[in-house]
Every structure is written in C-alpha cells, then in structure tokens.
Design goal:
The chain has 306 residues and is of the alpha/beta class. It contains twelve helices and eleven strands. It has a seven-stranded parallel sheet with strand order 3-4-5-8-9-10-11, with helices on one face. A two-stranded antiparallel ribbon has the order 1-2.
Length: 306
C-alpha cells in the first residue's frame, strides 16, 4: 500500500474531473436506501471560530474549503445548528447554495451553546422544533435530507424527542432521521418510534469504544458516521505506531487512519473536518489508499499498542 505525499494531492486534483475521482475511490453508501453518498464526507464543525464559537478567523477561506470539497467529489456534508452556533450552516449556504444536484447536507439539533467549548443538552420538543426551523432557514432548504438528534437529553423522555422528529418528518421538513452518541439499546428503542438511518458516534483507529454499535449498524444497514475520526492529531508524532506505518507506506498518519476507517466497514462514513484546503486535499487523497486484511490487522494492533 502506497500513497502520494500530502503536498502532491493538489497536483493530482488539478482538473475538475480528476479531482472528483479522488473522493470516488472511497465508494458509495445509500443512506435510508435513497440518498447515495460518497463514503468520505466533510464535517463542517471546524469552519467556525475557536471553541466552535463565532466566526472563523478567515470566512473566505472557509468558503473555499467547502467549494473545494465539492470539487473533490464530496457530496455529504455534516453540520449542526450548534456549530457557531448557526455559523457553520450559514457559511455552507453562502458557499454552496444553490446546491448542486446530489449534495446531501446533514445537520443536527439538541444542544444549546452558552459559550465557547460549552454544550448543554436540550431535547425539549419546542427547542427541537425551533432548531429544525432555524436550520431550514439558514441552509435555505425546504427539507433537510438527514436530521440527527445531537444527543438524547436524559432530562426529557426519549419518546418526546423522537416523536418530535417524527412529526417534523411527517410535515415534510426532514426526510430521514439519525442519532448521535447512542448505545445499541437506545437505537433499538428509537427504531420502535421512527426509522433510524444513521448513527454518529465517536470512533477512530485508536478509539473503538463503539464497536458494538458499529456491528449493529452493519447488521441493520445503518450508516455509521464516526466523529473525531482522526483523534484530533493524536495519531501523529514521531513515536506513534501509526506514524511509523505511515512512513513505510509513504503516506501521512491522517491518511492511514482514514484509509483504515474506510476499509473497516462498508457502512462507515468518515467526515474529517478542517479549515484548510491543503488538509482537505490530503484527507481526500486517502480514499485512494487500499488496505488489505493483513494491513488492517497490522494497523489495528499498532493502534492498540500505543
């Protein structure tokens, strides 16, 4: 397994057609059996300010990153009303509306933001309805393709939260419903109220605490969206086993980590985020890496040994 160094990604992606072929190497997945997405998406949390709060340092750069993501063949963008709050959704609309055919924008509701790096669960039905309406307005959409409950608020009956999303779905304001940071029993219970097409849990090559959830998603053909897929740089560093493997493969640690995720499961939908075009191109180049069973085991053991 070999990869071009990160700096060569922009050269390889010089033409629009060639650029789109990069993300296509990741393969496709059907969310809800009708939303066809490339399995390497883009997480739009980091196009906001420090602490996921307020405006980014360079809004024009954030716009360029989003447009470049689409040029590279990404057609699945994940965001939330709490990113900014509101800022991420507003920049997505500024950069990409009117949206190209086939672009799926997933957003989330269920948090309030009292300040930078502060998150407060709010699953009250009135809050979720207002959050959905706000996302529709900011994204300039009549219907959200995938609306995810950012957290199940333990202070509010789960059936009230899920029932609210079911009502919004019946009203035509959202098409499909997903969950975030949930256990298998929580998914099973949610399925008794409304169909669930995606689950977004923390997962990476070095953090596999949601292995049982991933296996359940495989069995049920539910999309699994790993957040924190690159462990925010924790896989890098000269002493990291992943870095040593990456050096052998002439790739970057982030590329190796993404390639491992894509090879791990056909329902895996990584959404690495960045505020840099260069890092975006590096991430998308990882889609061309192929990890065989032997390398999967090597990487898995190396991450555990860290």
């Amino acid at each position: 397994m070999t990869a071009k160094p990160a700096k060569s990604a922009s050269k390889k992606a010089s033409g629009t057609q060639d650029a789109r072929e990069l993300a296509a190497h990741a393969g496709e997945f059907l969310i809800g059996k009708d939303l066809r997405v490339t399995r390497l998406g883009f997480g739009a949390m980091r196009i906001t300010g420090k602490g996921i709060w307020g405006e980014p340092a360079d809004r024009a750069q954030a716009v360029r990153v989003l447009r470049r993501a689409v040029e590279l063949g990404i057609n699945f963008i994940d965001t939330a009303d709490s990113y900014g709050p509101s800022v991420s959704e507003e920049i997505i609309a500024e950069a990409l509306h009117p949206y190209p055919e086939g672009l799926v924008i997933a957003t989330k509701g269920g948090f309030e933001r009292p300040g930078p790096n502060r998150w407060t669960e709010n699953g009250r039905p009135e809050h979720l309805r207002a959050a959905c309406e706000g996302s529709l307005r900011r994204l300039r959409l009549e219907r959200i393709d995938l609306y995810q409950l950012h957290r199940i608020d333990p202070k509010v009956p789960a059936e009230d939260q899920l029932g609210t999303l079911k009502d919004l779905q019946a009203q035509g304001k959202i098409k499909h419903i997903g969950l975030s940071e949930v256990s298998v029993p929580q998914i099973e219970y949610a399925q008794t109220i409304v169909p669930i097409v995606s689950v977004q849990n923390r997962y990476s090559i070095s953090d596999r605490g949601s292995e049982d959830v991933l296996k359940y998603c495989e069995k049920e053909k539910i999309g699994f969206i790993p957040w924190f897929p690159l462990a925010a740089g924790q896989l890098s560093g000269t002493e990291s086993p992943i870095s040593r493997v990456a050096a052998q493969w002439k790739a970057t640690p982030s590329q190796v980590a993404l390639a491992w995720l894509l090879a791990r499961s056909p329902v895996m939908l990584p959404i690495p985020g960045t505020s840099s075009v260069e890092h975006l191109e590096e991430n998308v180049a990882a889609a061309a890496l192929k990890v065989d069973e032997g390398k999967m085991q090597e990487l898995s053991q190396a991450a555990k040994a860290k």
